[in-house]
């Protein structure tokens, strides 16, 4: 069974394919959920655009970076306090994205300490699993 992620702001329930912010359900499309789940599973690591495109949409979409940009923007609208100045889902220009987990004033509490067990269930974030 896949372990869920719980923190004081964001909860990702891998077993239910659900995300909550401050305990309230976030209405995410299946694509937005898979992007968020994959970033959570790889928190504090830069995930390349190609990697995200391949894991979320499949290998045929590897060069469709516009799909990723649009969906990341939508996701930020739903999880960022100020989407125009993201604190959690950061862009690494020309490379990809990173979901920050370090607990400092700029992003306190987004992601708990997270055990290896929590992250081990992250295959559910990939395409076609569940």
What's the story with the biggest beta sheet? 4 strands, antiparallel
Q: Assign the structural class, choosing from mainly alpha, mainly beta, alpha/beta, alpha+beta, or little secondary structure.
A: alpha+beta
Helix content range of the residues, please? 25-40%
Q: Could you name the CATH class?
A: Mainly Alpha
CATH architecture: Orthogonal Bundle
Described by the principal axes of the CA atoms, the overall outline is: globular
Multimer state:
single chain
Radius of gyration from CA coordinates = 13 Å
Q: N-to-C terminal Cα separation, in Å?
A: 11 Å
In short:
This protein has 130 residues and is α+β, with helices and mostly antiparallel strands.
Verbal overview:
The chain is an alpha+beta fold and 130 residues long. It contains four helices and seven strands. Strand 2 and strand 3 (18-21) form a beta hairpin. The protein has one domain (5-125): Winged helix-like DNA-binding domain superfamily/Winged helix DNA-binding domain (Arc Repressor Mutant, subunit A), CATH 1.10.10.10. It has helices spanning 30-41, 49-56, 65-79, 116-120, and strands at 5-6, 10-13, 18-21, 24-25, 47-48, 89-92, 96-99. The strands form two sheets. It has a four-stranded antiparallel beta sheet with strand order 1-2-3-4, covered by helices on one side. A three-stranded antiparallel beta sheet has the order 5-7-6.
